[in-house]
UniProtKB/TrEMBL annotation:
<feature type="transmembrane region" description="Helical">
    <location>
        <begin position="310"/>
        <end position="329"/>
    </location>
</feature>
<keyword id="KW-0029">Amino-acid transport</keyword>
<dbReference type="GO" id="GO:0005304">
    <property type="term" value="F:L-valine transmembrane transporter activity"/>
</dbReference>
<keyword id="KW-0813">Transport</keyword>
<keyword id="KW-1133">Transmembrane helix</keyword>
<dbReference type="GO" id="GO:0015820">
    <property type="term" value="P:L-leucine transport"/>
</dbReference>
<dbReference type="GO" id="GO:0015818">
    <property type="term" value="P:isoleucine transport"/>
</dbReference>
<dbReference type="InterPro" id="IPR004685">
    <property type="entry name" value="Brnchd-chn_aa_trnsp_Livcs"/>
</dbReference>
<dbReference type="GO" id="GO:0015188">
    <property type="term" value="F:L-isoleucine transmembrane transporter activity"/>
</dbReference>
<keyword id="KW-1003">Cell membrane</keyword>
<feature type="transmembrane region" description="Helical">
    <location>
        <begin position="9"/>
        <end position="28"/>
    </location>
</feature>
<keyword id="KW-0812">Transmembrane</keyword>
<protein>
    <recommendedName>
        <fullName>Branched-chain amino acid transport system carrier protein</fullName>
    </recommendedName>
</protein>
<comment type="function">
    <text>Component of the transport system for branched-chain amino acids.</text>
</comment>
<dbReference type="GO" id="GO:0005886">
    <property type="term" value="C:plasma membrane"/>
</dbReference>
<feature type="transmembrane region" description="Helical">
    <location>
        <begin position="222"/>
        <end position="241"/>
    </location>
</feature>
<feature type="transmembrane region" description="Helical">
    <location>
        <begin position="272"/>
        <end position="298"/>
    </location>
</feature>
Amino acid sequence: MRNFRMKTLWITLTLFSMFFGAGNLIFAPFLGKEAGSQSALALLGFLCTAVLMPIITILVLSKFKDGYSMLARISKPFALFFIGLIYLLIGPCIAIPRTATTSYEMLGWLLPANIWSQLLYSAIFFMGAYFVALHPSHLKDVLGKWLSPILLVLVVVLCASALFSPSQIASPSLEYLNHSFAKGIKEGYQTMDILAAYCFGNVILLNIQSEGIVKKQEVRKTLLFASVGAGVLLAGLYSLLAMSGMLHSYDLRACTNGAQILTELAGRSFGLFGNVLVSLIFLIACFNVCSGLLSCVSSYFAQRIPSCSYRAWLILFTLFSAALSIFGLDSILAISAPILNVLCPIAIFFVLYGIVQKP
């Protein structure tokens, strides 16, 4: 039993790390700062779409093995198109390049601001992510057993310092004044984790099986526990981050995004070391998501187009993402972000469809 619990813990931390990226870090503290005294209700709405729906999505899709298998019941060509589009947009066209650019920007206090510095950083960042993603069934050995625990400790330390030195809670901004719950739902929706959940299932199953858990019932049990556990971790950290923003909302009213809030809070509590702390948090969170997404996207396309190996797909997506992170991310975002906003409600609809369908 103890062995099973430890295996489930590693899978839980791996799944958590694949969800908890830089975007997730910055939404909650900004919500707390903007919602002010209405933060509790806003956070509840946020958790519905940023935690509950993604976890439900993973569990529903696992009934059919994955999203493609579920949608193939309706139409195989549509399943190929829709799931492929999600993988490309969530992966190499948006989320993966942004992990490098975001973490690089958070190291701006340390690194020189020029193209050569960014090129070198991106090369090192993506090379590391490539080697971690090279063995998708072993993601838990890096993300679950090492990087996720470190990330959790760092975020808790940062939030604890903010929670134990509160200042003044501001009144909610106009957007949160009368519709805080609805606004929280919208903010959680913007994390796009519902779409990300479509991508994670196969790789998580590989990691479960690599732990020697192969019986169908045991795999489902492990996935259930890991999904719920990851959801609890996400909800807990989001709550801490939102409370940190809320308790200092009056003093932080000039901040325009969550990254500024976290940097300001860290600086107040830890001085110069605060920059190191926040940079490490963003670096680890971004690296975890980058490695996980590279693995998921490459696995999917290797399954759908087996004439090209997993390693070949991984190299292709790594190089493409690295190039996009330096040269063309803004233009791609301008095109792809509206598409993602359209895909999310469709993805939610198909999850609801999957709930009522038999496997």
